[in-house]
Design brief:
Low-confidence stretches: 1-14, 53-57, 239-280
Largest sheet: 7 strands, parallel
Radius of gyration: 21 Å
Helix content: 25-40%
Number of strands: 12
Order of helices and strands: EHEHHEHEHEHHHEHEHEHEEEEH
Shape: globular
Number of helices: 12
Distance between the termini: 34 Å
Mean pLDDT: 75
């Protein structure tokens, strides 16, 4: 099965730079995830790392992975070690974002790796500040949790290391109880990745996922992860299908209709495991929809959220062309975080054409017929 890849970036003047926030406790697997993402996404990403108490370690690991030319490192990797970002938003985070945005025409996106003690919500709210809200959009909040530790009854694998991290920042002024902080991170997440899934058997993995589900918002999926290996589409988004040809293209504009074997059923031949690891992989599905006609925006957004919850939709991307609107409505969602805005990027259909809805969807239990029928409920009675 081929999963669509990310769309080519639009010129700076006509796009909002996507930002992905990665949160989770020290040792959960955030840096391993980022290394994989930087090396294999095919996108020009900038990374903002905030791990006080482990000053330079995460940054050094990312710096050494060779994700970009040496002469670009200073502009692509920024380390903040002066305190927890959620407590220093105005003094640290916003000025840094402005520096990165000054180079936005050379970037496809930004990833923020927060300290394990940071609250994600203040960072998400910071993207509404006037200085940056018209130039960025939150592409998703991803929480990384330690599945092995949770199976053993702890929210963190190394409590002593986390306590040392906490004591390294005397300015912390938010939650001090780890259980409460863990719940807060899950409540803010649009996607939860359970690391070390290969160390759990089927019942253990299912038990941990059932433990996490009530702590997440409706529509947020908990997915197993091994060694940070997650399709970049989950973290960074999907491409849409061009209406003229129906073909997908990769970041360089090449056809992407071939199979990339993203079902992750490959054998871990580098590890001497004799037992079945099917429980550590998720068979994902993708589909593309083209529905002609006039659609009412508010009804469509409501129905999209309903389908995200009902069908386990991980990501969707597309556009809606409406009669009387000069620009198509851009549609982006990761889990229940749905973001819609009117804009036209190069290569997208002109708003003067026939009205209609076009979506690319990535999920767990997709039913094309049910999805088309549900979204048809937002279609107006008069069709073009």
């Amino acid at each position: 099965m081929a999963i669509p890849t990310a769309v080519p970036p639009a010129p700076l003047a006509s796009r909002r730079l996507p930002v992905t926030v990665v949160t989770g406790f020290l040792g959960a697997g955030k840096t391993t995830l980022l290394r994989q993402l930087l090396l294999h996404s095919g996108q020009r990403l900038a990374v903002l790392v905030n791990e006080f108490g482990e000053v330079g370690i995460d940054g050094a690991l990312l710096r050494s992975c060779g994700f970009c030319p040496e002469d670009e490192l200073e502009g692509r990797l920024v380390e903040l070690a002066n305190g927890c970002l959620c407590c220093t938003v105005q003094d640290e985070f916003l000025p840094t974002m402005q520096i990165l945005l000054a180079k936005a025409d050379h970037l496809d996106g930004i990833v923020v790796e927060t300290s394990g003690l940071a609250l994600p919500e203040p960072l998400v709210q910071a993207f509404q500040w006037p200085e940056i809200r018209t130039r960025t959009r939150v592409n998703g909040v991803v929480a990384v949790v330690d599945g092995e530790a949770l199976a053993q009854g702890s929210v963190v694998g190394d409590p002593a290391a986390l306590e040392r991290q906490r004591s390294a920042d005397p300015s912390l002024d938010h939650l001090s109880d780890l259980e409460d902080l863990f719940r807060d991170q899950l409540a803010a997440a649009d996607l939860v990745l359970m690391s070390r899934a290969d160390r759990l058997d089927g019942p253990q993995s299912e038990a941990v996922q059932q433990q996490l589900a009530p702590l997440c918002r409706p529509g947020v999926q908990v997915l197993p992860m091994v060694r940070g290996e997650v399709p970049a589409e989950l973290m960074l988004g999907l491409e849409r299908v061009e209406p003229a040809s129906g073909h997908r293209s990769d970041q360089q504009g090449h056809p992407a209709d071939h199979d990339h074997d993203h079902d992750h059923d490959h054998d871990h031949s580098d590890e001497a495991h004799d037992h079945d690891h099917d429980h550590s992989h998720v068979p994902m599905q993708s589909l593309a929809l083209q529905l002609p006609g006039n659609f009412e925006r508010q009804a469509l957004e409501r129905l999209l959220i309903e389908q995200i919850v009902e069908q386990g939709i991980l990501r969707l991307k597309g556009w809606l062309r409406q009669s009387g609107k000069p620009r198509p409505l851009q549609i982006q969602a990761v889990g229940p975080r749905l973001d819609c805005w009117y804009d036209r990027h190069p290569g997208e259909p002109k708003a003067e054409g026939s009205p209609g809805l076009e979506l690319v969807v990535l999920g767990l239990h997709l039913d094309r017929g049910r999805l088309e029928k549900a979204l048809g409920g937002a279609a107006l009675s008069t069709r073009a």
